[in-house]
TrEMBL record:
The lineage of its organism: Eukaryota, Viridiplantae, Streptophyta, Embryophyta, Tracheophyta. It comes from Rhamnella rubrinervis. GO terms for cellular component: cytoplasmic dynein complex; microtubule. One of its GO terms (molecular function) is dynein intermediate chain binding. InterPro entries: DLC_sf, Dynein_light_chain_typ-1/2. SUPFAM superfamilies: DLC. Keywords: Cytoplasm, Cytoskeleton, Dynein, Microtubule, Motor protein. Signal peptide: none annotated. Gene3D superfamilies: Protein Inhibitor Of Neuronal Nitric Oxide Synthase. This is Dynein light chain. The keyword Cytoplasm applies. GO terms for biological process: microtubule-based process.
Length: 106
């Protein structure tokens, strides 16, 4: 795992889900080298799909921009060291599953 603690940049998740995201990211970094961003993202996404249901998206890297639409209560953007992690549950349309959606730039 990378040294240092996670720094949350933006989130609308409940505290318990935020902690799950940090724990899963830490676990991913135990399994994969920091240079394996795609594998880290895949691991985090699959863990959240198992725990919270499908539709999760994860982006991992050191330099990226984003503007995403997500279901309210399912967005977190954080850093562990110099590695940024964006995790959110996507939503294609406001009508999807009757949940509120929100767009955020990270």
């Amino acid at each position: 795992m990378l040294e240092g603690r996670a720094v949350i940049g933006e989130t609308d998740m409940l505290q318990t889900m935020q902690q799950d995201a940090l724990d899963v990211a830490s676990k991913a970094l135990d399994f994969f080298d920091v240079s394996e961003a795609t594998e880290i993202a895949r691991f985090i996404k699959k863990e959240f799909d198992k725990t919270y249901g499908g539709g999760w998206q994860c982006i991992v890297g050191k330099d990226f921009g984003s503007f995403v639409t997500h279901c309210y209560g399912s967005f977190i953007y954080f850093y562990i060291g110099s590695l940024a992690i964006l995790l959110f549950r996507g939503s294609a349309a406001p009508e999807a599953e009757g949940t509120a959606i929100q767009s955020v730039e990270a």
